[in-house]
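user:
I keep going back and forth on a fold encoding question. Separate attempts, laid side by side, tell us more than any discussion would. Would you put together a sequence-and-structure record for a protein of your own picking? Write it directly below this note and I will take it from there.

assistant:
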Amino acid sequence: MNPLNALATRGRKLTAILLPAVALVVLPLSAAPANPSAKTNLLRSVFILPANPGEGRDPFFPKSNRPYEMAPAATNNVPEISALVVKGVSGSTEHRLVIINNHTFAAGDTADVITEQGRIRVHCVEIKPRVVVIEVGGQYHELPVSDNP
C-alpha cells in the first residue's frame, strides 16, 4: 500500500471519529436554555463572626484572638463642611462647572475632596447662580459662590 494513501485513509478515519465528538461538545454550548423564565435558586453563604472560642475559630489562624475582640464603637464623625470652599464657577449656562477645593464638579458628580481634616466624599447636587448644593454624609448643604476669585 502506498504510504500517502495509508495516511489519507488514517486522516479520514480520524476525522470521522473526531467530528461527532466535537459536535457533541459544541452543540450544547450554543443551544438556548430550555426554560429561560425559570428562576434558579441561588445559595447564599452566610458568615457569622463568633463571639467566643466556643462558637468558632479562625481556620487560618486557630490560636488568634482577633475574631473575638470587640470592634471599636463607630463614632458619628461628621465631616467639617466649613473646610469646603467654592473656588470658582465656569462653563455654559446649560452645563455649569464648579471648583470645590481644587476639584471640578458638574451637577451629579461625586468625588473625594481633600481637606485639612482628611478626605470628604462630596456629591454635587445642583449648581445655582449664587450657591452650590452638595450632599455630604447624607446631609444637604449650600456653599456660597464668592464673587472674589
User: Anything to note?
Assistant: The longest strand covers residues 118-127. The radius of gyration is 33 Å. Strands lie at 86-91, 96-100, 103-106, 110-115, 118-127, 131-136, 139-144.
